[in-house]
Amino acid sequence: QYHCTHVNQPLETSCMLLLIMLGKVFLDFFMLQVRPKNVRVSFMGYFCVSVALFDFTLLLSICFIFCFEDFALWGVRFTKYHICLFTQVTSLTYSILHYPVYLVAGLDYYTTISQTSQFPKRGQKLLYVFAVVVIWISGFFCTLKVPAVYEELEIQSAVSPQQCPVSASLQSYSVSCAMVLLLGTALLARWREVGTTLLSARLVSFSSQPVFMFSYTSNSSTCCRWQLLTRLLICFLGTWAPFVVLQVLVLLLGAQIPAYVDMNVPWLYFINSFLLAAVYWCRCHGAELAEGMCSTDPFVSWKFCFVPFDNGNTEPADEPSAVIV
């Protein structure tokens, strides 16, 4: 079933839409450029590239129509009205892609978490490409063929030409609520352990690089799953804390972000890290996490070196024990 909510303040000019898409495309390709090149490929990685390419294609289309205003191509007349139409179709498509994308990405990590090879087999890469293509085709099919969505598009098209109302995704909103709720619950359950671990942090040099060392004492009375949760929270929030705060503010203020904006590469990498943390925690007993799995996430290092400082010696050990989480 299709769900969407209307943004209260619609886009009013093609120029504003052009500037928004320009900023989004720049941000998409910036994130793809700064990510490490030695990251093991995954479904989410392929989908992030597809989102960036689709946004770039939409930007080129908007620019072309904006510059020539009224022209015919392949027997179809294009006007500034099509700028709004393309944006509405994109918003409706993006708004229904969140659940299937996150489900497929989660299943991908759950089934491949123990793989250490950075380069999957060719069949696996082709499967990722096939899954991305199927998701995009299904999304556009639902947008253009499902009666409820088609009626929604006609209602939006009936608005005054000076306005361009777009949709906000209910799927994205529900995912944000679920993530904030889960993170808040985890922090409430482990806030003491997280605080103790952070207070023990020391900045030292290891292999000519600055690293954080955390004092850690094994507690046999604490479940391994709960100890792992503490480390996952530190890893995740150490990178994405500003993004989590932003999500909380958006939810508290009730801001409705257009669907063509909230489906972006930084958001997908944020979801990617959350999915990896969830899979690590679910499979802490069922998977042997090896060194190669640390390269799955482009922006979060899921490995800690816990070196006890009980003896007062601040010199790092030659070969500190690595705890993979």
Question: What is the secondary structure topology, with strand pairs?
Answer:
Elements: E1 4-6, H1 14-34, H2 43-68, E2 71-73, E3 76-78, H3 81-95, H4 98-112, H5 122-145, H6 147-157, E4 167-169, H7 170-199, E5 202-206, E6 209-213, H8 224-253, H9 259-262, H10 265-282, E7 303-305, E8 322-324
Domain G-protein coupled receptors family 1 profile: 23-280
Subcellular location: Membrane
Keywords: Membrane, Transmembrane, Transmembrane helix
Largest sheet: 2 strands, antiparallel
Question: How far from one another are the termini?
Answer: 38 Å
In percent, how helical is the residue content?
55-70%
Morphology call: elongated
Low-pLDDT windows of residues? 6-12, 287-292, 305-325
- Radius of gyration over all CA atoms, rounded: 23 Å
Query: What is the mean pLDDT?
Result: 77
Q: Helical element count? A: 10
Oligomer: single chain
* Backbone structural class: mainly alpha
Strand content: 5-15%
Number of domains: 1
Strand order of the largest sheet: 1-4
**What is the N-to-C order of secondary-structure elements (H for helix, E for strand)?**
EHHEEHHHHEHEEHHHEE
Number of strands: 8
